[in-house]
Amino acid sequence: LELCSLVRYVGSSLLRRILQECVTEIDFKESASQYFDELFEQLRRSTLLKSREDGSLLLDANLRQIIRGYLIYQDKELYIKVNQTALSFYQESFQGDNGNRLLYFVEEIYHIALINQMQSVKIDIYSIAQKRLNEFPDYVDIVGLFDLLRNKLEADSELVDILSAQNINVLDISDMINQ
Q1: Quick one: which of 6, 45, 98, 115 is 20 to 30 A from 75 by CA?
Q2: Could you report how far apart the first and last alpha carbons of the chain are, in Å?
Q3: Contact of 94 with 136, CB cutoff 8 Å
Q4: What is the rounded distance in angstroms from the CA atom of residue 128 to the CA atom of residue 80?
């Protein structure tokens, strides 16, 4: 549950990736995907996680912030590694799935912002956002997509707070959409 608190939307694929790449006490690399599916189902039955329409699980934002603060204090390297793993997962997912690209794009920004909080060398969120916007396929209704993205970014109070603490205005990212 601690590692799941570092991502907002936990699916079985992301859970598998985080456990395989970030946990050293147990070797999850040889575990069959059925093991992760069963583990995910156990998490689904937990009262601490809510099921979402897309099948992923969501931990309450307040509880997630408490656990995140604890992990930063206890193991900063693990905190960064889990966020880097989630970031890689969302970047790869963005490249391969046109249906959920908007979600993957927002989660990529979220994990970059969390990593930036912990490192002196910052990842340029603006250049990542501009790059992603240029990677949407030509057949996508860009105007409609931009409206959706702007609304999603502006409504994401957790992301707005994290970015604001880094002097990044989500409206600046949104304004790039209109260019």
Answers
A1: 45
A2: 41
A3: no
A4: 19
Q: Which amino acid is at 172?
A: D
Residue type, 150: R
Q: What is the pLDDT of residues 103-120, one digit of tens each?
A: 888 899 899 999 988 887
Residue 95 neighbours by CB under 8 Å, 6+ apart: 135
Torsion 7-13-17-19 (CA) sign: positive
Longest dimension (CA), the chain: 48
* Residue pair 71/18 in contact by the 8 Å Cβ criterion: no
Rounded distance, CA 176 to CA 40, Å?
Answer: 37
Print burial letters for 122-160: b (CB count within 10 Å at least 16), e (below 16). eeebeebbeebbeebeeeeeeeebbeebbebbeebeebb
Q: What are the pLDDT digits (tens) for 146-172?
A: 777 778 888 888 888 888 888 887 766
Give CA–CA dist 22/19, Å, rounded.
5
